[in-house]
Amino acid sequence: MTSATTAMTVPDTEVLRDALGLLKDREQVAERLLDSSAKHSFDPDAELDWDAPLEAGKWYWPPELVSLYDTPLWRRMSVEQQQDLSRHEAASLASLGIWFEIILMQLLVRHIYDKPVTSAHVRYALTEIADECRHSKMFARLITRTGAPTYPVSRLNHNLARILKTVSTTPGSFACTLLGEEILDWMQRLTFPDERVQTLVRGVTRIHVVEEARHVRYAREELRRQMVTAPRWERELTRVSSGEAARVFSLAFVNPEVYSNVGLDRREAVAQVRASGHRREVMQSGAKRLTDFLDEIGVLRGAGRKLWRSSGLLA
Ligand SMILES: [Fe+2]
Ligand SMILES: [Fe+2]
């Protein structure tokens, strides 16, 4: 009897100690992120020169990161047409960014609904929501300034995301957050230092990279904790739902309307992007930091891994 009780209490105590350790760790991470937010946050309306004229002959996105780069179609295009495509793709990615950020804001609001309002963890979530508000306004202003249209995702994806942002549980929400943030972040890190790119685009991506690094940290730490503490069904659901999100994300990444809008045959362009080895490499390199992390914490297993493979983001 005694030994059975001991055997039962030991793991319980350990679980409790681990849980307390994780919560303490959660507060420490949030405190550090709040400190960094206080030091390095930007007001894009004041920080960037929105009235400066756009520069002739410059790209709106590094050419190597434009979807058609190095395809037979690309080689037939004039530099002007290639640069015009980069303008439309930048607007398409900014539109995708706004879509993601609006979803993310709702996920964060749902995440903190039941949590202690004075905790650093909740205060940081509110700080991140405020960052995303500024980012979405900044991206919208960029789209307007480039003169390109907005590029919404398809009705189907729009409505799939409506379901996801309403019902998804915490680990699934943070896995999707990282999917949205890390690949675009990888591209933006290559964009802001690139002197071939428009100054305004460089300014927008620089602000986003600085503030986004904290969001990635917050989401990673929370997802790591969740993959230890969440019940088995929820971890399993996270594997499948993040794989499905990766599949949808890779299809929705660039709106194919961009090709028609620069005078290309849309179907031919989409087919060439799908067949492009360069593009596959770009997308997999962009996702690598994320997929390595997800693999390490046990998200890329079973059926979920197959979905990740089919998205083309996992080699
Ligand atoms: Fe953002
Ligand atoms: Fe973010």
From TrEMBL:
Pfam hit, one: AurF
Name this polypeptide is given: Diiron oxygenase
Organism this protein belongs to: Streptomyces catenulae
